[in-house]
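Appendix B. Chain record.
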Amino acid sequence: MQRLTTAPRRQARADVLFLVLLGTLAGFINGLLGTGGGILLVLLFSRSAERAKRGKGISFPMARRDIYANALSVMLPISIFSATQYASAGALDVKAFSPMLLPSLLGGILGGILLDRLKLSWLRTLFSLLVLISGIFMLFRG
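Structure tokens predicted for this chain:
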């Protein structure tokens, strides 16, 4: 087993601390706003994968399209916990979300199936447009 020298070991610790802090921030944003943590994680995983290709930072041996799946997997427990907190505070309206539950689950299944079939450039464009349009609506809604 190869041992890390002091500088790479220090860098690995700094990278892990960076990931922990960004994970905490993603959870905080998701809990506070109800969304947004996944967007931050997609950006984080994308940046980390690019750095890994250049031999810098923690190596994420994931394909570019796997970034979306990994961000979603991290967000699932965060979203469940946040929803539980909202429910315990009385802020969850079952009548409002129940008509969307089944269609959302079906849409999630379809999206998961399409993830492996769509061009990566199209996914990146779709994701970027969604973030941009969401931001514009949030800024200018009345």
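Further analysis of this model is presented in Appendix C.
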